[in-house]
TrEMBL record:
Keyword terms: Coiled coil, Nitrogen fixation
Residue ranges of coiled coil: 4-31
Source species, domain of life: Bacteria
Protein name: Rop-like
Coiled coil in keyword set: yes
Source organism of this protein record: Bradyrhizobium canariense
Record family assignment: Belongs to the UPF0437 family.
């Protein structure tokens, strides 16, 4: 498997992870004020997931241009 193909597979997994993190954040927001202490950890997880996804997408773009 080439670097581009493996990176695309990784991006697909990260996209699913980011989508789940988004849904977790959405579900938490609908339950507020219940579980309000978990706001920071859920938001951090969502931020980390999307940050990693964006980084990998940028890396893929750079590989595809080369």
């Amino acid at each position: 498997m080439s670097d581009v193909e493996s990176l695309k597979a990784e991006i697909k997994k990260l996209s699913a992870k980011a989508t789940q993190a988004k849904m977790d954040l959405h579900d938490l927001s609908e339950e507020l004020p219940v579980n309000w202490p978990s706001i920071l950890s859920v938001a951090h997880n969502a931020h980390a997931a999307f940050s990693e996804l964006e980084s990998k997408r940028q890396h893929l773009q750079a590989l595809e241009k080369a």
